Amino acid sequence: MENEVLRAGIIIIGDEVLKGHVKDENSHYLLRELWSLGVRVCKVSVIGDGVDEIAEEVRRFSSLFDFVFTTGGLGPTHDDVTMEGIGRAFGEDLVPNAELVKLFVGEEGKQMDRSNPWSKATMLPSSTVIHLRGDGAYTMLWPLMVTHNVHSYPGVPSLLRDIFQLCKDMYSQGQARFYLKEVFFSCDESLVAHPLEKLQKEMGETVQIGSYPDDSPRSPYKVKVSLESSSRERVEKVFSRLILFLPTAYFVDVRDSYHVRMGTKADPRKEVSWLLKELSFDKPWLVPDELCLRIKESLAIIEEAMEKYRIEELCLAFNGGKDCTVLLELLHSVLKKRGRNFQSSKIKVLYINAANTFPEVEEFVNKMEASYPLEVTRISDSIRSALCQVKSSQPNLKAIFMGTRSSDPNSGKRTYLQDVQCQV
Q1: Helices assigned H by DSSP within 267-382
Q2: For residue 230, pLDDT beyond 60
Q3: In the chain, fewer beta carbons within 10 Å around the N or the C end?
């Protein structure tokens, strides 16, 4: 993943967990919460109540990850040996912590009676820092204990959750969150296997792609594919490619984490929904974000031109290519939305047909002329010369729409509503 993504490991400590006497709820909670904060958990380990085993696992995890989370083994009983194991991992002696003595005894500076079972809980590695107040105002029922990069939480799920919610800001540190998009398919997993393998090889570790079959009889889908990255743009890129690889009939649904998190304003489909409806697109949720944003920008330019010029003063350059065909559909949809009567005023089109034009292109242009309300002017010449000719023959024209891509020659130098001098 990205360099700024922090990595974590979780160590669940307790013989009772290994024996199945107690269900581990803490790892699932921490996994979910840390993911939402942008911390990637790389490993979860469940070990018993052995000092040497705890020391070995803590030492190893501490060297591998930015954060290590331990749960369990912090109480007053004989099998609560987590802090002893952590101390041994770092070669530190256990010493009484003054704040914990005050917490358990209730009087500052007073020594705790060794016969008190809670005296054991006050003994911490010498470098351990405790957090008793999560937000500066609320005293936690149990402290968070931090030894180097090891964060020790109690094993009681309710206590762990309360403490984590009060202290979780120390883990976010402003790094990027994870972005997740889930795509649901009605086809067998084998049909999506090759495209997913190809995409994973292309993206490497920047995007994590997962595939999860569901054979339950009432499930509306057969396969769920997850796309995850710290970059929203990369997730959308993979999603856009996935759409091209597979028939749209295979797609059942698409869900993502970021539109919900950032609110409806983050979903560009909202502002172009009228167009998707106009085009009778039955699966608008399949339209990638980037395409929606591009469509939104194009619609804004068309609307601006409509405000500045009358329809009789506008013309569309059309050569039968993909760019201008899309632009024609957008222009037609905007005019229809604005209540334009096409019977009385057709869309003016300039078709520059080169000498070596394929007959299929001519056929397609004729088909579009019959399908749309177009008034086509045909000129066989260079683009610049043709523009000058049409300007001369139709002096009322003020602007011309031309579809282009950023990768086209000289297109990077062009701006919207740019004045061009017609000089042959």
Answers
A1: 269-278, 289-308, 322-337, 359-371
A2: yes
A3: C
Which has the closest alpha carbon to 318: 280, 366, 247, 284? 366
pTM: 0.67
Maximal C-alpha separation, the chain? 105
What is the 8-class DSSP label of residue 286? G
Contact 67, 21 (CB under 8 A): no
pLDDT in tens, 21-32: 999 999 999 999
Angle at 331 between CA 326 and CA 337, to 5 degrees: 125
Strands (E), 101-203: 123-125, 129-133, 139-147, 150-153, 179-185
Q: How far apart are CA 177 and CA 174, in angstroms?
A: 9
Q: Is 217 exposed, middle or buried (0-12, 13-18, 19+ CB in 10 A)?
A: exposed
Phi-psi region of 148 (alpha: psi -120 to 50; beta: other; left: phi over 0): left
Task: Determine if residue 417 is left, alpha or beta; phi over 0 gives left, psi from -120 to 50 gives alpha, anything else beta.
Answer: left
Residue 247 buriedness (CB in 10 A; 0-12 / 13-18 / 19+): exposed
Distance separating alpha carbons of residues 177 and 37, to the nearest angstrom: 6
In DSSP terms, 125 is beta-bridged to: 94
**Between 364 and 345, residue with greater pLDDT:** 364
> Residues 297-332: pLDDT tens digits?
888 889 998 889 888 889 998 888 888 888 888 888
Go through the chain and tell me how many residues it has.
424
Sign of the CA dihedral 68, 20, 36, 231? positive
CB 197 within 8 A of CB 206: no
Closest CA to 68 of 52, 57, 84, 81: 57
Q: Tell me the C-alpha distance between 67 and 33, whole Å.
A: 14
What confidence tens digit (pLDDT) does each residue in 48-71 have? 999 999 999 999 999 999 999 999
Q: Which residue has the higher pLDDT, 342 or 270?
A: 270
Q: Contact 44/50 with Cβ under 8 angstroms?
A: no
Residue in this structure with the two tokens 């290519």, named with its chain if needed: 321
Tell how many helices (H) and how many strands (E) occur in the chain.
15, 16
Check whether 421 has a pLDDT greater than 80. Answer: no
88 touches 50 (CB < 8 A)? no
* Half-sphere CA count of 238, side-chain side, radius 13 A: 30
